[in-house]
Specification:
single chain, about 400 residues, 3-stranded antiparallel sheet, elongated, Rossmann fold
């Protein structure tokens, strides 16, 4: 399973996280070669194992999406023996990650202050809805409600319609990205100093952080940002346009690109008009320019516009559905869809790693594990448990019969 030449091949992660943000983070670390031992509740496992349909070989598609390259062991953390086994696993681990409610780890005696006593180099990451501090810290937090509370829904959706969430759990995904980034920084710090540290990642902080230019528009003007549908608050024309048979996405990001666009579509009048010669003016007069462009794009089908504009180097894209993009030749060439063998589902498809590294490429080495797939192997190989001891643990309910 492990690739000894991978970037993180010498790193071990104990993963108590479940659902999406934490598992996405540990999946990224596993792609880079870290050994990720996923701790799951006996008989139940990660809650997303039940988040179906759809199902593939008895596993939910949701669970399969973020748990590749990991080992699964079951461990009853309500028992003293279960907690003692976990502490032994953490004692020589590099990273510990959890996403329980604030205070849960402290009550269980599994908080950073406790675990780092036997492992001062431990990097401990907690992901929660609101973080470990602040007046909201004890509230539960989920992606959808954070999108609502964090402001992104107020600027998503049509200008005259209702607020909309993003079509994927983008707060969870980006929280996992922020967490993995911080963990890698902490590993670099430990390499220099030998010191581990505690990392506190909040879903709300995550969402606020990527308000980016929208937040800074408010800082600059004091005006509440609104919804622009598929348009851009700072760039025009930068939105979808209806064609004779569908839609196309146009992304003209500079005055030079706009001038060239007007030449290519044979509408020099749209450049000659001084109201449209600078982006600042195009933003100011978008209510005049955009309807003119809408009328223009309706005169030809999508494919004709795409061929014309892409040949001229104008940034433009089709609006693909999911099957179309997942079967796109560019996605195929970049190995963004890969096949792997799963123990119960047979051959399954997974999304591939994003970053292409020349010396230590991220890889999919194994399919997401079934519940407790690696319990015996981890206990025997890492903690030297005998078969008799493992059998006794099953009888006591410390580990599952999975």
């Amino acid at each position: 399973m492990m690739n000894p030449t991978a970037a993180l091949s010498d790193i071990r992660v104990i993963d108590l996280s479940r659902i999406l943000a934490g598992p996405y983070c540990t999946m990224l670390l596993a792609d880079y070669g870290a050994e990720v031992i996923k701790i799951e509740q006996p008989g139940v496992g990660d809650g997303t194992r039940q988040w179906g349909p759809p199902w593939v070989g008895g596993e939910s598609a949701y669970f399969l999406s973020v748990n590749r390259n990991k080992k699964s062991i079951t461990l009853n953390l309500k028992s003293d023996t279960g907690k003692a086994i976990l502490k032994k696993l953490v004692a020589d681990a590099d990273i510990f990650i959890e996403n329980f409610k604030v205070g849960t780890m402290k009550r269980m005696g599994l908080d950073y202050e406790t675990l780092c006593q036997n492992n001062p180099g431990l990097i401990y990451c907690s992901i929660s809805g609101y973080g470990q501090t602040g007046p909201y810290r004890k509230r539960p937090g989920y992606d959808f409600m954070i999108q609502a509370q964090g402001g992104i829904m107020s600027v998503s959706g049509s200008a005259d319609g209702s607020p909309h969430k993003v079509g994927v759990a983008i707060v969870d995904i980006t929280a996992g990205l922020f967490a993995s980034n911080a963990i890698l920084a902490a590993l670099h710090h430990r390499e220099k100093t030998g010191e581990g540290q505690y990392i506190d990642v909040a879903l709300l902080d995550t969402q606020v952080a990527w308000l980016a230019n929208v937040a800074h528009n408010y800082f600059a003007t004091g005006e509440t940002p609104g919804r622009y549908g598929n348009a851009h608050p700072n760039i025009v024309p930068y939105e979808t346009f209806p064609t004779a048979d569908g839609y196309i996405a146009l992304a003209v990001g500079s005055d030079g690109q706009y001038s060239k666009f007007c030449q290519v579509v044979e509408r020099l009048d749209l450049w000659a008009d001084e109201r449209f010669q600078t982006n600042a003016n195009r933003v100011r007069y978008r209510h005049i320019l955009v309807p003119l462009l809408q009328d223009l794009f309706r005169t030809r089908p999508t494919d004709a516009w795409f061929e014309l504009l892409i040949k001229a180097g104008i940034p433009v894209g089709p609006i693909n559905d999911i099957p179309t993009i997942l079967n796109d030749p560019q996605i195929t060439a970049r190995e963004m869809v890969q096949e792997v063998e799963h123990r119960t589902a047979g051959t399954i498809q997974l999304l591939g790693p994003v970053a292409k590294m020349s010396r230590t490429p991220a890889q999919i080495n194994c399919a997401p594990p079934t519940l407790g797939d690696n319990t015996e192997a981890v206990l025997s190989e890492r903690l030297n448990f005998t078969p008799e001891q493992i059998t006794a643990l099953r009888k006591e309910g410390v580990i599952g019969n999975d």
